[in-house]
Amino acid sequence: MTETLQDFAARLVAGHDGGPLVESFPVDLVPTDRSGIYAIQDAIIAHTGPVGGWKVMAGGQGEPMCSPIPANRYYVDGESISSTQHRFVLAEIEVAVKLGSDLPAGAEAAEVEAAIASIHPAMEMVGSPFVDRDKIDSMAKNGDLQSNGAVVVGSALDNAIKADLATLKVSLRLDGVEAKSTDTGADWAAIVEAVRWLASHAASRGLPLQAGQVIITGARALAPQATAHLIEGDMGAWGKVTARMTY
Predict the structure, then answer these.
(1) Which of 241, 245, 225 lies closest to 90 in space, CA to CA?
(2) Which Gene Ontology molecular function entries are recorded, alphabetically (predicted)?
(3) Pairing relation of β-strands 170-174 and 230-234?
């Protein structure tokens, strides 16, 4: 019997939450274009409850890739999370924005800026519900909410950081040891433009951007987390975000 998209989406959700690992992606469900990717994402969201935010790549070429993120995958700074249960494999340091008001389709850049209440350091934990993630087609992994496992959100940063975002020095530390650092990333204008595009895209999928949602804007520094218990994303004098892993 052919597995439905909805049934397979439920298995992906379970695999991210300590349930049985998924051996393979059904051949007839592997997406071949973005509409197929987003259909899988929508089916997953139908199983997880409300959307808590989105991930979108700011500053790239062409139309951004994006994904909604379930509200139950957001954690506060310093919170303890079971890496074993949620099958985390990578940690990524990102700049996030939190919406203070709803943002409708067709919003202009000035409206986007007005809707953004605060800027935050964030850590995305990449998760894998698969037995062997390396054997899974990249389009399929994009359908799996772009491999999102969790997002840890740090305290709000001073808005003056906007001027430094393009050359912001960030470092990722695992149990106190630096694993990766960089000093390049999307500038404020690129982040605003990505959120502006996202407002129309999200609305077209029946998932409009809403007040309180947190949007992460692309990995700046990332590394396999291995068995690190303390993962820190440091943005120098601006602030940092911390996640504590249990195994």
Answers:
(1) 225
(2) 2-oxopent-4-enoate hydratase activity; hydrolase activity
(3) antiparallel
Q: Virtual CA dihedral for 119, 228, 145, 107, nearest 10 degrees?
A: 0
For residue range 54-84, what is the model confidence (pLDDT) as tens digits? 999 999 989 999 999 999 999 999 999 999 9
Q: Are strands 74-76 and 80-82 parallel, antiparallel or unpaired?
A: unpaired
- Rounded (10°) CA dihedral 95, 82, 244, 167: -20
| DSSP letter, residue 160 | G
Taking the model in full, what pTM does it have? 0.97
DSSP-based three-state secondary structure for 57: coil
Tokens of 68: 């909604």
DSSP string covering 169-182, please?
-EEEEETTEEEEEE
Beta 148-153 vs 74-76: how paired, if at all? parallel
SS (H, E, C) 55-115: EECCCCCCCCCEEEEEHHHEEECCCEEEHHHHCEEEEEEEEEEEECCCECCCCCHHHHHHH
Which residues have C-beta within 8 Å of that of residue 234, sequence separation ≥ 6?
Answer: 170, 171, 172, 173, 240
State the maximum Cα–Cα separation within the chain, in Å, rounded to a whole number. Answer: 57
CATH class of 5-246: alpha beta
* pLDDT of 1 strictly over 70: no
